[in-house]
Specification:
Length: 167
């Protein structure tokens, strides 16, 4: 049995974003139980040149949204921006999931050879769809969710591997 591009992308994005939502809910509860200002976690970064927690979540959502859109050959919508609370970040993740759920397998299946062009400043990088998914989109999603998890764990939120992987 082969794995389709849809199966390797959209359900993975949705699962990881749902896990991220559960992690953020635990973080919010941790802040409330320990009388911690949530901004202390939301604005925390592991190192000065790294993104803060909020930006890690925003970028993870964008990689999921834009990853699916690029594989489908469409432009992803703007979702969110300027989130300042766990509730805001959770809402952004939920809106991203709703967008991902709008994709049908036939929009993404067969995208293995589809050209995906990424523009960043003056730099243009072209990928084949499968290379984009496996070497760019999924690793970036995992990186930013892992970094968000690490920020919370570093700050005492009781999380474990099951929280990251989900049920």
């Amino acid at each position: 049995m082969s794995l389709s591009m849809y199966q390797a992308s959209v359900p993975v994005y949705i699962r990881m974003l749902n896990n991220l939502i559960a992690i953020m809910e635990k973080a919010a509860a941790h802040c409330e139980a320990n009388k911690i200002d949530p901004a202390a976690l939301i604005d925390f970064r592991l190192y000065p040149d790294m993104f803060a927690f909020a930006k890690q979540v925003q970028v993870a959502c964008d990689h999921a949204k834009n990853g699916a859109a690029r594989l489908a050959g469409v432009e992803g919508p703007e979702i969110g921006g300027g989130e300042k609370s766990f509730a805001d970040l959770i809402e952004r993740a939920k809106k991203t999931i709703a967008y991902l759920e709008s994709f049908k397998p036939e929009q993404i299946d067969g995208a293995e050879e589809r050209e995906v062009v990424l523009k960043r400043g003056d730099t243009v990088t072209t990928y084949r769809g499968q290379d984009f998914l496996l070497n760019r989109a999924l690793p970036n999603l995992f990186f930013h969710i892992t970094t968000a998890y690490d920020i919370l764990r570093h700050n005492g939120v009781e999380l474990g591997k099951k929280d990251y992987l989900g049920k």
